[in-house]
From TrEMBL:
The keyword rRNA processing does not apply. Keywords: Cell membrane, Disulfide bond, Ion channel, Ion transport, Leucine-rich repeat, Membrane, Signal, Transmembrane, Transmembrane helix, Transport. It comes from Pavo cristatus (Indian peafowl). One of its GO terms (molecular function) is potassium channel activator activity. The keyword Metal-binding does not apply. Residues 1-19 form the signal peptide. This is LRRNT domain-containing protein. InterPro entries: KCNMA1_auxiliary, LRR_dom_sf, LRRNT.
Amino acid sequence: MLAWGFALVFLLGMGMASGDVSCPSGCSCRYLEVNCTGQQLQEFPAAIPLDTRQLILAANNVSYLPAMELSFLADLVYLDCRKNLLGDDLDFTFIGVVKLVYLDLSFNNLTQVTFSTFSHGGAGGRGGGISSGSTPWRPLAVRGGAG
């Protein structure tokens, strides 16, 4: 009987280790990537696997990026949020996304990015690429961070 219990625990553990986790509704997931392009999302999707490295939210209706949920994605290096409804309320949004090296915010409702947007790391302070349309932002123009 104990052997059956051990086998069950082992099989469940192997399923978790193999990355067999849930994927946000309407999105497609493959190894370390979540793609939610063009799903008419109104808000940041729930249940994003915590080991996600590439998150694509392009061509949706997302108006807000929650800093807390983003900070749970500790390995996130690529974030594509182009063609959404994001506004100027991005202060401290990327404060916990310290491995982020690529961020696309083009074709949103942004008119400014402040010092607070990338404080303590993230794409602005780490030398990564940031795109906001036809003219990419230079990381050195966004000062601050742990870079």
